[in-house]
Amino acid sequence: MTDRHPAGITILGATGSIGLSTLDVVARHSDRFRVAALTAHTDVDALARLCERFQPRFAVMADPLAAERLLTVLKVRAPDVEVLGGQEALAEVASLPDADYVMAAIVGSAGLLPTLAAAAGGKRVLLANKEALVMSGALFMQTVRDHHATLLPIDSEHNALLQCMPDNYSTGQAPRGVKSIMLTASGGPFRTTPMNRLAAVTPEQACAHPNWDMGRKISVDSATMMNKGLEVIEAGWLFDLPIDRIRVVLHPQSILHSLVEYQDGSVLAQLGNPDMRIPISHALGWPERIESGAQPLDLLAIGMLQFERPDLQRFPCLALAGQAWRAGGTAPAILNAANEVAVQAFLERRLAFTSIPRVIDYALEHCVVHEAGTLQAILEDDAQARDRAMRCITSGLGMTAS
Ligand code: NAD
Ligand code: MG
Q1: 399 exposure class (CB count in 10 Å sphere: 0-12, 13-18, 19+)
Q2: Which helix (H) or strand (E) holds 185?
Q3: Backbone dihedral angles phi then psi of residue 306, each to the nearest 5 degrees
Q4: Residue environment code for 200-209, b if the CB has 16+ CB neighbours within 10 A, otherwise e
Q5: CB 306: neighbour CB atoms within 10 A?
Q6: Domains plus CATH for the chain?
Q7: Nearest ligand to residue 257 Cα
Q8: Residues lining ligand 1, CB < 6 A?
Q9: Could you say which ligand is closest to the alpha carbon of residue 128?
C-alpha cells in the first residue's frame, strides 16, 4: 500500500445487506478506508454493534426516537461517536467534508434526498439505491455533473457494464462504439413456477432468491422482475442510452453479470460469483483493484451458463417499467412509488403477488405525469402515486384478472 491518507466513507443504510457487505470490504482495508458515518432506520442494536466495531465520527438513526435510544446505548459502549437523528441528518452525513466516499445503500425512495446530497457534495457516490436514480434521473445526473461527483454503480449488472465500457469512460456519457447493452437477470424464484400458482405465493417464497441474499424489498422486486425494469431505467441514465439499445436476457446462474455489445461485433462481459462484495470492491478501489473476500470463480464446477428470453406475460412489471421510461417525466417516479406501496402490501400479506403489477398499472393509468425537472415535482408525483396505489389496494380496484 501507499502512504495515502485513508479515504473517509459514509455508509447510508449500514445495517442492510449492501451496508454490511460494504463494511466487510472496508474492514479488509483499514489502511485505505476510515468510516466517517453510519446510518440506519430503526435497528438500534445493529447500528450500535457497528459503531462499537468501526468507531465512526457520526451515527444517524433516521427515526428520531431510535436516535435517542442509540444515544443512551452508545454513551456506554462507544462514547466518541456523535449520534444524530432524523431525515436531515442523513443528508448532513452524506455531505460531510471528511467523507470522500458515500455508499448509497438505503432501500427505496427514502434514499433520494441523502443520495442527492452526496452528489451535490461532489463525493464519490457508490450507488446501490437504484430507486433514487429511477425517481430523479435527469436531476440526479445533472447534480453529479454540476458538482463534479464521481458516480459508480454498485448494482452488479451496472457495475459489470461499467467494467466493460471503453477506456476512460465515465458514467453519464454516451459510450463510444457501443451498439447495445444487455442486462442479465436471474428470473428470481418463480422463473419456472406454474403461472396458476403465482397468485398464492408467500413473502417467504418470494424472498428466497436462488442466487443472491438481499433485503426483502429488492428480493420481491427480483421475483416480479420489477428489479430488472428499474435497472433498465437505471442503465438508461447511467450510460445515456435509449431503451431500444438496452436488452434484458435471463441467465439463471447469475455468473455473467451483463454485457456490452460493440459496433465491431465484440461483446464484453464481466463474470464472477454472485457476491456483492465484488462490485462493492470495484467501486471502492476504482481505478485500482482490491481484495473483496469473494470466492474465486470455478467455471468447471458451474459447468453450464444458460440464457433465455424473458416472458413478459409472467413478468408484466418489466413491460410496465419500459412503458414508464418511454412516457418520461415523472412516470418512472410514479412507477417506483406504486411499486414500493404494492411490495409493502404484499410483504404484509395484504396483496396477492400477482396483484403487484395491477396496482402499478392502475397508478400509471390514474396519475398525471409532469416534467421531472425539480425535486418538488418528483416528490409531489411520488406522493400522488402512493395515494393512488393505496386506494387501489384498499378498495380492491384493479384487482380482477385482466
Ligand atoms: P436492506 O433492506 O437489507 O437494507 C436497507 C437499509 O436501509 C438498512 O440499513 C435500513 O436501516 C435502511 N433504511 C430502510 N428504510 C429507511 C428509511 N426510511 N430511512 C432511512 N434508512 C432506511 O436493503 P439492501 O438489500 O441492502 O438494498 C439496499 C439498496 O441497494 C436497495 O436500493 C437495493 O435495490 C440496492 N441493491 C441491493 C442489492 C443486494 O444484493 N442487496 C443488489 C443491488 C442493489
Ligand atoms: Mg442488480
Answers
A1: middle
A2: strand 178-185
A3: -110, 155
A4: ebebeebbeb
A5: 9
A6: 7-153 (3.40.50.720)
A7: 2
A8: 13-19, 40-41, 43, 62, 105-107, 110, 128-131, 155, 212, 214-215, 218, 276
A9: 1
Q: Please count the residues of the chain.
A: 402
Cβ burial 284-295 (10 Å sphere, 16+ → b, else e): bbbeeeeebebe
User: Average pLDDT per run of 10 along the chain, which is 402 residues long?
Assistant: 81 98 98 98 98 98 98 97 98 97 98 98 98 98 98 98 97 98 97 96 95 94 98 98 97 98 98 98 98 98 97 97 98 98 98 98 98 97 98 81 42
**What's residue 3's pLDDT?**
61
pLDDT digits (tens, 9 = 90+) for 150-167: 999 999 999 999 999 999
- pLDDT score recorded for residue 399: 66
Nearest to 321 by CA among 219, 232, 222, 220: 232
**259 CB neighbour count, 10 Å cutoff:** 21
Distance (angstroms) between ligand 2 centre and the Cα of 156 equals 5
- Residue to mutate, 214, 228, 273, 276, ligand 1, most ligand atoms under 8 Å from C-beta: 214
Ligand 1 atom at minimal distance to the Cα of residue 156: 43
Instruction: Give the pairing of strands 33-40 and 58-61.
Output: parallel
Burial (0-12, 13-18, 19+ Cβ within 10 Å), 150:
middle
**Ligand approaching nearest to the C-alpha of 129:** 1
